[in-house]
Each structure stands twice: as structure tokens, then as C-alpha cells.
Amino acid sequence: MTERISIEDIIRLYKIDYSFVDQLIDSELLHPEIENSVRYIIYEELPHLERFANWHYDLDVNLPGIEIIHQLLNQLEDLKTENRRLLGHVTKFESWEDADF
Could you give the angle at the alpha carbon of 26 between the alpha carbons of 73 and 21, nearest 5°? Predict the structure, then answer.
């Protein structure tokens, strides 16, 4: 079983609003697990929750803004991955071009 924390504990520890967590879940930015009518967030999603809470409470970013920023950061990561993959192909091609036959 994956490590997880109840949403009630998250609200108490992080001092965030229950409605904010519900909005993140409704927007599919967080994906809770449910067991015995208790909702849990897996530990792997906690960095996302912390980031969203910081944007919302510290920078006053609303939920649509959080969704857009999150989407853009994911796209940026995808582009970085694709760039590394393409650079790997270029490096292989340059090595092949320099080979003596």
C-alpha cells in the first residue's frame, strides 16, 4: 500500500481550507484515494499540494490560474524531455558522421 495522509490531517497540518482541497480535487489536480469514507492523498502528491497552496495563499493565485500554471509547467517539462531526446539523436548522428569507414 502506498503511503498516504488523510485530507483532514492535511488541512490541520498545512492550515488550508477544506474547500481549497475540494477545488483541487474537483479540478483533478489532486487524486484522492477513498477508504472507509475517508479521503487520502498519497505522499507523492504532497509536493503538488504544497506548491498549489503556496501559489494560492502566498501569491493570491486563483484556481484557474493554478490550473494554467500547472499545465504550463508540465508542458515545459515535456519539452525539456523531448529536447534531451532530440539532442541525444543529434549527438549519435554527429558521431556516426565522424566515423571512418
Answer: 80
User: Which of helix, strand or coil describes residue 5?
Assistant: strand
Conformational region of residue 75, where left means phi above 0, alpha means psi within -120 to 50, and beta covers everything else = alpha
26-81 pLDDT per residue, tens: 999 999 999 999 999 999 999 999 999 999 999 999 999 999 999 999 999 999 99
92 membership: H or E segment, kind and range: helix 63-98
Beta-sheet strands, E only, within 1-101: 4-6, 33-35, 38-42
Indicate whether 89 pLDDT > 90. no
Confirm if 49 and 11 have CB atoms less than 8 A apart: no
